[in-house]
Structure prediction request, 1756 residues.
Amino acid sequence: MNNQNGLKIVTIGGGSSYTPELIEGFIKRYDSLPIRELWLVDVPEGEEKLNIVGALAKRMVKEAGVPMDVHLTLNRQEALKDADFVTTQFRVGLLDARAKDERIPLKHGVIGQETNGPGGLFKGLRTIPVILDIVKDMERLCPDAWLINFTNPAGMVTEAIYRHSNWKKVVGLCNVPVGMRMGVAKALDVSPERVHVDFAGLNHMVFGMDMYLDGQNVTDTVIEKITSGDSSMTMRNIVDLGWEPEFIKALNMLPCPYHRYYYKTDEMLAQEMKDSEEKGTRAEVVQQLENELFELYKDENLNEKPEQLEKRGGAYYSDAACSLIDSIYNDRGDIQPVNTLNQGAIGSLPDDSAVEINCIITKSGPKPIAIGDLPVAVRGLVQQIKSFERVSAEAAVTGDYHKALLAMTINPLVPSDTLAKTILDEMLEAHKKDLPQFN
Amino acid sequence: MNNQNGLKIVTIGGGSSYTPELIEGFIKRYDSLPIRELWLVDVPEGEEKLNIVGALAKRMVKEAGVPMDVHLTLNRQEALKDADFVTTQFRVGLLDARAKDERIPLKHGVIGQETNGPGGLFKGLRTIPVILDIVKDMERLCPDAWLINFTNPAGMVTEAIYRHSNWKKVVGLCNVPVGMRMGVAKALDVSPERVHVDFAGLNHMVFGMDMYLDGQNVTDTVIEKITSGDSSMTMRNIVDLGWEPEFIKALNMLPCPYHRYYYKTDEMLAQEMKDSEEKGTRAEVVQQLENELFELYKDENLNEKPEQLEKRGGAYYSDAACSLIDSIYNDRGDIQPVNTLNQGAIGSLPDDSAVEINCIITKSGPKPIAIGDLPVAVRGLVQQIKSFERVSAEAAVTGDYHKALLAMTINPLVPSDTLAKTILDEMLEAHKKDLPQFN
Amino acid sequence: MNNQNGLKIVTIGGGSSYTPELIEGFIKRYDSLPIRELWLVDVPEGEEKLNIVGALAKRMVKEAGVPMDVHLTLNRQEALKDADFVTTQFRVGLLDARAKDERIPLKHGVIGQETNGPGGLFKGLRTIPVILDIVKDMERLCPDAWLINFTNPAGMVTEAIYRHSNWKKVVGLCNVPVGMRMGVAKALDVSPERVHVDFAGLNHMVFGMDMYLDGQNVTDTVIEKITSGDSSMTMRNIVDLGWEPEFIKALNMLPCPYHRYYYKTDEMLAQEMKDSEEKGTRAEVVQQLENELFELYKDENLNEKPEQLEKRGGAYYSDAACSLIDSIYNDRGDIQPVNTLNQGAIGSLPDDSAVEINCIITKSGPKPIAIGDLPVAVRGLVQQIKSFERVSAEAAVTGDYHKALLAMTINPLVPSDTLAKTILDEMLEAHKKDLPQFN
Amino acid sequence: MNNQNGLKIVTIGGGSSYTPELIEGFIKRYDSLPIRELWLVDVPEGEEKLNIVGALAKRMVKEAGVPMDVHLTLNRQEALKDADFVTTQFRVGLLDARAKDERIPLKHGVIGQETNGPGGLFKGLRTIPVILDIVKDMERLCPDAWLINFTNPAGMVTEAIYRHSNWKKVVGLCNVPVGMRMGVAKALDVSPERVHVDFAGLNHMVFGMDMYLDGQNVTDTVIEKITSGDSSMTMRNIVDLGWEPEFIKALNMLPCPYHRYYYKTDEMLAQEMKDSEEKGTRAEVVQQLENELFELYKDENLNEKPEQLEKRGGAYYSDAACSLIDSIYNDRGDIQPVNTLNQGAIGSLPDDSAVEINCIITKSGPKPIAIGDLPVAVRGLVQQIKSFERVSAEAAVTGDYHKALLAMTINPLVPSDTLAKTILDEMLEAHKKDLPQFN
Prediction:
């Protein structure tokens, strides 16, 4: 670590509404994770939100009585200098862009979602050039730091860093596995600490392969429980559609909530259509929530994370992040599911691709636990999504129209090459200002 | 070879309307491929057709003046004894079953087709137990023979033999690559002999990776020609839907006609819906054609293959089969695209799976030419179909309901687990008599 | 576990002189590892030693005051019934056989050693049929038990179980990694608990890839220290030959002591020659030590492990075994280097081969941590030894003379096919009574 | 091709004594391979030999009456401009360097040979930087040309081009497979055209896996014949040592003559020792032969290849080269064993490494025929040699002392790290002038 007297952590996209969760997490762990400097960085368009959330962060720290300096800045380079950890949670184009990612495909009868399908492709196209820029800064300013990326689509972004930069110290993080583990605990009616799940797959395409209670394999019991009706494995920001119980029995694993986009495409599309008409797309709902949250954050008497934040959907994110940073810093050797380089851990995915898998977390970073391979039945879809991620990352880096069209067409949620072109052209136009590489 | 005085060839499903093509092919090649005995085998339900087509075969042979004995039998074991080559072109459940494979999914808004989607699964479920039975007979009765399988879904059937029997001397054959090569020749306006195509993929999921004219790589020229409008790469039994030119440019390879089920799902479904209403499903159209053909075949003055057979859709099949048998028998060492064991030839598919790929054809069978790997963009879909084929084959062998449901749900043409179950249950009931393993 | 009231552990080869170490280990861990029954099993030839060491074991347990029942038996089946853990440490043909493994090759100018070269092959040929028999008993008598195998050559034996039986619950155990870690701690002058080593390779062919102190990568420091002279990484039962420092720097990893048979063949051979003349081969030295130990063990006043046992060479063995059993039983999730199924953890070794690698130890057994691949420079030798192990295991199972000759000739310590045949023939004759499969 | 009016071929190391063979080959094939310009290139030290052999070449062409212009030059760039094929057969340091490669290891009791062991390493260290320079020239001057490399160690050199340049149009060529095929034909007493051998492995480490007569697999017959005594599979420049028949039976494949360095190390070393004392090392014998040959070449009346050249040892080289060039130029699609990119053709070798394997030869170059994998028994040695080649190539490119030491020590013919260092240091000094990268 660079700083003898404590850690320097930089959060890019610091003006996010999630930031209070992160602050709370850091405060709680202060004893084992002595952060001296926390830099919240944002872009000029986000300055107002940065100031609001930054002020709350300072009040929270002060209230907690920990000697952590919170800095707010629009100057990324200044912030990165000698950082120990950099977390990224930014959103290029803000929620407006997300709304387009949702609305445009939907208009053409295709699922519009932030991390899957056309929306996932476009979020990647906007995000990847920025993250590669950050990584270039890091090479120069904080070459020993770890990059902890939350920015979606986290799998594609992590893949892009591995393949299109020289930076290896990156971990992609997602709250989906934590939620699944919580769900298993709930299904078993036990505390989550007693539950272990063998996670493997890709980001938003991860499976709980085997499940354990106090080390005993209870996969059959869990499958039985969740197919017999009452328990729901869903996450707040995914509509609650029930799985076909016989399919889950046939799978004999726990799919993640996002798998429903692929195994329940029709139902998910119908629900999205309905929701978008009745209450707006997810981006529009979130925008409303965010407005309310920022109103709350402005309250100078508020010096803790407000309860309402939980509705926002990113539950466990900060917990996952703080746990990861803590385990790296303290060389804990515990097991956490993260996005890291495959290195053979999942047989039928490339060794040099990003995968989401259980890892031992050490001071040298995550080391994946080899699972051999995913069951034959799910292998193909996972490989297809990895193909999509790789072609998307190439399109993002090169700004090549044909690569973008290829990515769009091979995505399993897009049912036609002609439609793919229509949606691509419309979205390229709509996101023009955030896609300089395509101009 | 077993027979010093010429070859013994057995055709299972000999009562097929295709048989005259095969006979014609054997007659044409008699000099290099001296067949003394040709056994046409069929099941009791097919006896009438066997007798009609068998009589025509005998007239054709007589007219040609070649000393080839044509035998008709319902006794498979008798036929197989000491055979040199066994070709299989049977259809369990006849065209009635195919009509159900097409109608039932379509009723639920899902593509109904003989080799893809729910139809492909069910054709596999009906066919695989029978082919494994044949293979068991062959182990005992003609252990040195080659099995040349035309029966669809040829990829799944070949996979099933590799994985669920000890028989290795099997080649899966399809006319799609021949048709694609013809298409390239037509696009270039040259004779097909001057054209070479690097084929790789799976059955009905094969790509023309690079294309050559007199050995010179002309891929760019061909792509340019086929995307500039007039040329069509389609096969007769697939509706003529135009590809999105920009997608083909992005792909920079030649997809096969069946790829449209995946890359143009919406259009293919709409067309199928329309056709099924206006002129019946493909099985129904074919049934009509077959009836007409068999009327023709009955004509005792007919002693050659009637022209009308070409409309049937299996163009080049017999040519592909005769060429393959000829090249094996004569150790020709020429290149033919067939379904064989991968053995590393395509990087991201299992070594021990069936693939459709260019092979050197020798007396020891086909030896695949390694291509390294398919482009990243198409790899995932191919892997997904291979997953589907493997799970389907397991379902066929075990009669396990959950495996069948798994196969149905993971098929990319089936958009929902719930719908998958509905279709599965309905089709299991409809095909009950041909699926003893599920009872 | 089968036994609600505590564990049943079976030690096959219970009459070994090592047994008191194991007993001591179990006693120390009694609180977390409540063993109710410990069954020491041996063959009729070992009965006397079994009785001696068994009596000592009982005295040790009594002195410790733990409620562990020690049973002595020649009836393996009786012992295995409902066991929770089975440890194997037997030696087919006893030390006499080992002496032949050492003397015969040496006579022909080839290294004679228990686990490498011709000696390793023959120990495998004698041991593998016995272990496969034990495994068959276990399938029937204690299907839920774990087999913890210490019997050398542990890598080849574990490989044989994976490839030639249906038993998967086996872990191969070796004290070499523990010794290497101790050596690193000594080189750094710190306590071993603070040291972590990334172990990967095969049994007796394992590398310490990266080394850590309190989680910090100190590989360079360790390499510097051990090449600058004074520290020795050797184990007691391998002669202390210094590595060429520049080679270790070039390697930039820690080889294991047994690597010297391959990278210092000349020196090892010369030393063996000298030792065998001056003080006898290792088996002969060990025989003498064992005689002395059993004299001590007979002393009815002895009720603890005598100090002299440490000279025997198997330091840390019992510790490794007890730690492993404890971690499985208690689902500890700690990291231990063991021999387990590769499953992709080491890239250039087969997924379905045994490797020696760091694993997370859970109630479901060891889960290997993927390392990607070994450095190119060492990969080839490791692959060659794996080839040797696999061919040897096949020879052991089939009793095929040609497979045995193949194994002997491809071993890198055997410098000629002709010499291989000479040594093979002589050793087959010498070990005749213990190799029924070759008769 | 660049030249409408015929081909331009460049031979680097044109002053070699082999050149008349190549000229003869080109003359014989003139009809199908219309070479208009043949450029013989050499370095200043080789000018005299270039002039002698060049004059002979011109006389041979004149005598044959073919319109082929032979150019002699020391200006490589001038020669390479717009070439269609470039063949390389140069020897950095001439035979003097080879003599050192042989003498120095031998002095230390280690095999001294041009392509294996320390000699192979040093020939690689001297050659690779030069070939990479040639390739850089080709990128600029004749980007469409094929590089046909004969320069030994051909496997390592081809590997180095694949891994350390961007040039992909390279084929490594060796006469060993041709000789093996001839040997099989001789053993069967048939003409070589009727024999086919499935070659796979690495250069000078290639196996004849299956052997065919008129397409029929006759492997067992050949193995039987060559182990029953009289037939010898040896090549002229390898001492004639008989294999152990039982080992060849166990292998059930045809090893290449160079395999004896590994499977008969003791005998080969003893023979080398004896020969070097009695008649000089191979380089010294060859030097004498070359002197005699060049005396012959000077004879202005000589206008054909003199018979004495056959003793030189490179039989079939020119034939292999001319056949290869002819098949590429004419897109023949025949099968030839060459060194090319693996691309999965041999399972347990890296996809991106050079292997020696049967390929279809087309205008687009060689396409390897997938064999699945080498038998387990030989896999390890082949992998070890590939490791050695890769580390050697890295040492050659970087001039890194430790990498060179690593390569030397891991070579299976070098029995000790200490000895490796001794030999390395002595050879680095001896070859100093030809190893600028190490200075």
